[in-house]
Amino acid sequence: MKTNNIIYWITTSLIFLFEGVMPALTSQSEMAKEGIRHLGYPDYFGLALAVFKVGGCIILIIPRIPSRLKEWAYAGLTFDFIFAFISYVAVEGFVGLAFFPLVVLAVLMVSYITYHKKIASAKI
Hints:
With 124 residues, the protein is an all-alpha fold. Helices cover 83% and strands 0% of the residues.
């Protein structure tokens, strides 16, 4: 149980840093805006994406948030990573950087699995 809890907090913290803190600090930089434009999206999409990423990560990191809301946050971030991969492959092809969203998705899935193990062990 202790190992599961450690893995949960490490993976959830990594997601919070990559998808919560980084977008909050960099989403309005010119490089981020150019990245959104390069993928064919309008500028406002980057801001909306950053708001939802930060919101979802806050929901994941706060322990007392209801589990149903956490499920929505996990689902939203999952869609984000899948569509980031698809968008990058559609524009750039199957290059190395296109697979980074799938790596972060794998970290998110470990967080999700350990979250459910954590809940199950708390009910016992």
